[in-house]
Amino acid sequence: MNVDLSNKWALVTGASRGVGLRIAKGLAHQGCKLILHARDAKSCDELAQELKSQGCTVAQVGAELSDNKQVEALITQVNTITQHNLEVLYCNAAIMTPWSEPFKQQAQDYALSFQVNCIAPAKLADAFIPQMLNSGFGRVVMMTSGIADQPQLMAYSCSKAAIDRYVRDMVSTLEGSDVLINLADPGWLTTDLGGPDAPNHPDSVLPGVLVPVVIEKAKGSGGFYAVQELKDYPL
Asked: Which InterPro entries match (predicted)?
């Protein structure tokens, strides 16, 4: 049986388009109250209006995840909106720096990739997981990637491996609680990040992308959820 997400506050990063937009719509359908994040909060205006017209409670926040001060401000905004009671954190936002020949990846590409794809999500989790433990419920999902054997995108793949490590090292801290942290791999998609040659449309992430949010406590933390393999999951 899936958990009831009715009236639980959920933050989705990178919610203005692509996978994040689908996650937000899926969580709204599950009854969540949504906080939509984008670099510019106005980028989520259209989605916010659509969800509000369906009766969903929606807030919008803007933050550049490459800027630690803006990440801290984002945490403050979310705490104000939720009264320190965020229950679902879905770290979807990510960047991919330019394709580079092997051994030619620039140091700034590694630094930017780690900041946006690992450090910012880790700091969000560090901020909100203690609240979840205090309230007795929480779901944290980090978007990972199945990328492999592409040294031309080494900065991106290394940053994703780092956030994978964060999730797995957090498991023992959450053991026995109803606060779960897991990984979701959406597959290769025709998004701005995935490009036009990808085999899967962004719509294909539903319902699978919601599975690590709706799972029961017994499923535990540290799992890897291959979204494209969960097309028949009952919600």
From this structure: NAD(P)-bd_dom_sf (IPR036291), SDR_fam (IPR002347)
